[in-house]
Amino acid sequence: MKDVIVSFFPAALRMPWETCEWEWDKVEEIRIRVDKPVVIVRVNREYILLKGGVIQELTHDTDMSSCVIYRERELDEMFRHLCMDSIYAYEEERRQGFLTVRGGHRVGITGELVVSDGKSCIAKYIRYMNIRIAHEIKGIANGLMKWLYHAENIYNTLIVSSPGVGKTTLLRDIARNLSNGTKEHKGYAVGMIDERGEIAGAYRGSASLDCGIRTDVITGGNKKQGTQILIRTFAPRIIIMDEIGMKEDAEAVLYAGISGCSVIATVHGNSFDDLKNKTEIQPLLQNRIFQRILFLQQRENGLRWIEIWNGEGMCLCGESLLQECLS
Amino acid sequence: MEWGGDVSLWGELVAGMFVLIGAQGFGKALSQEMKCILYHMNEQKQMLFYIEREIAFIHRPMQEIFLSLSERLKKPYDSFLKRVSDKMEDGSGKGLSSIWKEEIDALYKNGGYPKKTFYYLSQMTRCFGCEEGEMQKQAFAMLSHEIGEELEKMRKEKAEKDRLIRTLSLLAGILCIVIFV
């Protein structure tokens, strides 16, 4: 993992990262803000990196005098490096505010936005970056798979949690189980729409994380286009999609449902009431499109708990610990 | 002046022939160097054309373009681009411009090619790093146009020089024979 983290930085900025000995495997995020200390998030705690390659926990009285701070020029250099000296090739990603790098790690980018070419906004100056490390933990969904099957059918399922709790990791493991099959159930053709390359850790279109042997992955584009392509040409039994956030995404879910596919999707949220207030999710809930809703929560000790509800808003399975701690 | 009858006449003819062949050889060597430069410029122009199209069509990043071109271009550009692509991929954190310069230096040291050969290749570093696709494409197109003009000029120059050397060497040979007979 250390090598992966070092590879995010251009040669000139690598020194403190290379010399730092730490448990990098559990790092979730690296937050880089111009002229501010680099903050590393690991199991719900924040740390800063000192120039000598030492990690120190961040508290209100942490001495910031010798911590690693990046300036504007260094952030520009880092962005160029992340784009592998081909910034033009990442224009679309830049507009969307993130890049996916090798291994499926996502780098959020922002700063001053401008409207370019009369199209959407694009970051003119990139001054803030958030590197989110993709984690692959196999087997976390094993215990809840039985709740997703209905004879030989799969319930349309929505995974709900706050950002950074592990929705995508859980979604990937569910996809892998459905694709490979289990002792009781055969494997199905799974179509995965991975707009940001995060579920499959897609790099240059290939999944670098295990999503199952019967999974076809579409990276880039949008959910509507992805659903159409999958249904027309790949005949999936199940469609997997991450983060329903817009009206068009909800339309893609409806289209998949009409076409006879089961949908497993994720959305940001905390509770059933919270979901009801989301305008893009409302029609899906009203039409009872989702028959299973999984609420994923994280406690302060880093452990993840899951609650399983049905589409009518009835709790089927109270809080249970996920098979493994996601962090 | 007596030069020893028939034997000396033959000697003069042979000397004249040597001058002729020598001048032709010199001309040929000069022309070979130009031919070498023309070959390299042609390959470089072709490289730029491919890069431009790859960017225009699917916005492929440089490293992938170089890898794909390394299978299409002739020596020494096949291995040159493969090495650049590998170095970009190996995660050393070096920028494209510095990798490019390093590889040009290596090519110059090991290949024994004339220095002029790599002028435009080193000029390509000017084109890297554009933020927008069309701009990036145009940067390469402009350099390609520049190479095209230089190629045209050099082809004309080469044809003129070839003609001049042939005529001069012929005249020099004839002059030798005339002077010494």
Describe the structure.
- The complex is a heterodimer of chains A (327) and B (181).
- Chain A has helices at 2-6, 15-19, 72-82, 91-96, 167-180, 223-233, 247-258, 272-276, 282-286; strands at residues 27-33, 39-42, 45-49, 55-57, 98-101, 105-115, 121-132, 149-150, 153-154, 157-161, 190-194, 215-219, 238-241, 262-268, 292-298, 304-310, 315-321.
- Chain A is α/β, with parallel strands linked by helices and 327 residues long.
- The radius of gyration of chain A is 20 Å and the shape is globular.
- With 181 residues, chain B is mainly α.
- Chain B is built from 6 helices and no strands.
- The radius of gyration of chain B is 24 Å and the shape is elongated.
- Classes of the chains: A alpha/beta (327), B mainly alpha (181).
- The A-B interface holds A 3, 6-7, 9-14, 80-81, 83-91, 204 and B 55, 59-64, 88, 91-97, 128-133, 135-136.
Low-confidence stretches of chain A: none
Number of domains of chain B: 1
Spatial strand arrangement across the major sheet of chain A: 12-11-13-14-10-15-16-17
Shape of chain A: globular
Shape descriptor of chain B reads elongated
**Mind summarizing the main beta sheet of chain B?**
none
**Low-confidence spans of chain B: pLDDT under 50, at least 5 residues?**
none
Q: How many individual β-strands of chain B?
A: 0
CATH superfamily of the largest domain in chain A: P-loop containing nucleotide triphosphate hydrolases
What Rg of chain B, in angstroms, do the CA atoms define? 24 Å
